[in-house]
Write a structure and sequence with these properties.
- The complex is a heterodimer of chains A (109) and B (114).
- With 109 residues, chain A is an all-beta fold.
- Helix content of chain A is 0%, strand content 61%.
- Chain B is an all-beta fold and 114 residues long.
- Helices cover 0% and strands 46% of the residues of chain B.
- Chain B is globular.
Chain lengths: 109, 114
């Protein structure tokens, strides 16, 4: 089975940088995903890491350390529209994608 | 289709009734997933179909829940003898079976059991 842990809530201000951490325990690791979910909407894909290191995509970056079972999502130049839940998810080979409980980020002006 | 389509978008039912929720995945996507999300909670895995393989039913919470996928495309999630704790948004997602297997989600079916 899998165990995925991330903070429940975080707050930040517009223009700031925030880092959302995720730790996981799994066997047969086959990828770490981050999804964004705005209130009342379906989750949408943000990033995917399968190798160690940093993946940068605009204002969002995601980091993975497989040896430590650790990932983070870095959001730069925060905007009000970034207020959402951020879901860390882990995949094992041949199995379903399992999600953590999500981190609710509130961005204030 | 262009996206994952789910129906109904909203369903209100009485305790003890059976409900069926439908998912039409993206054409060509071989993997199909059902998740459940209660208010303010994360996504709870229910069931996973991958091609012609036997489905992974390990997430189904009880034998009142079942799902099938006909012809490798449309899937139906059936909840028998609904209980109030079944109230949630039921999300369907599909993906290819290659590369990153990025999931595309439908808008969900909101189930309310009175």
């Amino acid at each position: 089975g899998q165990n995925i842990d991330q903070p429940t809530e975080m707050t930040a201000t517009e223009g700031a940088i925030v880092q959302i951490n995720c730790t996981y325990q799994t066997s047969g690791f086959n990828g770490l995903f981050w999804y964004q979910q705005h209130a009342g909407e379906a989750p949408t894909f943000l990033s995917y890491n399968v190798l160690d290191g940093l993946e940068e995509k605009g204002r969002f970056s995601s980091f993975l350390s497989r040896s430590k079972g650790y990932s983070y999502l870095l959001l730069k130049e925060l905007q009000m529209k970034d207020s959402a839940s951020y879901l860390c998810a882990c995949k094992e080979a041949g199995t379903a994608l399992i999600f953590g409980k999500g981190t609710t980020l509130s961005v204030s002006s | 289709g262009a996206g994952v389509s789910q129906s109904p978008s909203n369903k209100v039912t009485e305790k003890g009734k059976d409900v069926e929720l439908r998912c039409d995945p993206i054409s060509g996507h071989t993997a199909l997933y059902w998740y459940r999300q209660s208010l303010g909670q994360g996504l709870e895995f229910l069931i996973y179909f991958q091609g012609n393989s036997a489905p992974d039913k390990s997430g189904l919470p009880s034998d009142r829940f079942s799902a099938e996928r006909t012809g490798g495309s449309v899937s139906t999630l059936t909840i028998q003898r609904t209980q109030q704790e079944d109230s949630a948004v039921y999300l369907c997602a599909s993906s290819t079976d290659s590369g990153a297997n990025v999931l595309t989600f439908g808008a969900g079916s909101r189930l309310t059991v009175l």
